[in-house]
Amino acid sequence: MKKIIKISCALVSAVVFFASCITIQGQTEQPNILVILCDDLGYADVGFNGSTDIITPNLDQLAEEGTIFTAAYVAHPFCGPSRAALLTGRYPHTIGSQFNLPANGASTGKGISLKEKFIGVPFQEAGYYTGAIGKWHLGETTAYHPNNRGFDDFYGFLAGGHKYFPEEYRQQYRRQKEAGAKIINDYVLPLEHNGTTLQENEYLTDAFSREAGRFIQEANDKKKPFFLYLAYNAPHVPLEAKKEDLDKFKHIQDKDRRTYAAMVYAIDRGVGQIVENLKKTGQYDNTLIIFLSDNGGHTGHGANNFPLTGRKGDTWEGGFRVPMFFHWPNKIPKGQKFDFPVSSLDFYPTLNHLAGATIPQNKILDGKNIWEAFTSNQNPHDKETLFAMRHREGYTDVAARQNNWKAVKVRKEPWKLFNITNDISEKTDLSAAHPAILKKLVTEAENWSKTHTEPLWFDPLYLEQMWKDSTMATFNETFEIPQK
Fold it and tell me: Rounded to two decimals, what is the model's pTM?
């Protein structure tokens, strides 16, 4: 009898799952899409991914009512290039954005190539109200401003980081201005709304959550579906948190970890408010919520990437494998985990498909529409390879994952091979046991590198000379496999 009951339950689940897929394919109402991107959030720093010391009840509830992606990757292990990939659907190396834009005025006149149509453009053309809130980091001049890259509404800052308490950053900004500084630190510049600077009075994370609510209300008033890219600055340094949030984490003795935890909790609080905004305006059931981080957590600044090896900036899993979930009531599986690899590069084609939008003509995409594979619990990248690469001073780190296998090169060490499905912590190197698999993945990575373009900028600036001297990328050495 127990076996019959189990089979019946499985059949019911399959029918419900299939019915939800039919609903998506046949729907006439365009869905709202909310992408929530955190900055430097660790793999194990949310409850739904195993955190025991940081509480994230609102995120956990959404994750439990949706689908958790256990093998979600971004296209680069740090900030700017990862964001460029998400918003363009291109590996950053193929569009010249391998590095962060230089800080504190050094990036003037630079930004992601204007030939690239950002993800918001087809949404606009499909009748969506589009918004970007928070951190931009993809160009600071008019041509590269969010309002000119597919976003009707922008509230936030254009550079790569910012302080959190307005009473502090306003004072520092004023002091630098009064001292006649020609270059003012990016982290204290005033926030802006659609090109107009303003005086913000709330803690930065709270301000971004508030503005997300404002945007959602505006979309409702306009009677338009919305696409919102909510890019929190938290928990990126500087580590700054509100006292009431810190008080919830007195059990954490390490000061940095405690402050970091409070910053993550502020995100969770904000997401809870946003969910209430969606419910209040009657948009909750028709909104796909996607939550993820731009890269792995920085373990030197309070983050925890367990059980992954490495941290932000690495091609170990801890550098570019991130926590992620999808939530959409009655449209996607509830309480499920999706264990196949997916990439932030897939957002552009997948989300535009859901919106019924048309991809710009001649638009090159490095990701793919994963929706059908996702809703049928199939590997969307079967026999396809996902890559990551970071150029360092004098060498290049690379990773290539295909199905269960991952080849990785870090520092100037030989290539290693892992069965990443069974060995998520990358502890057992199988390169000697499977040399043919290693060679295949390294060859694919080398062929991929041949599609790259020259960087349009460097950060720090002195790296440009190293690049010109051919002492940086060192591809002639990167893809060598020593004979054993």
Answer: 0.94
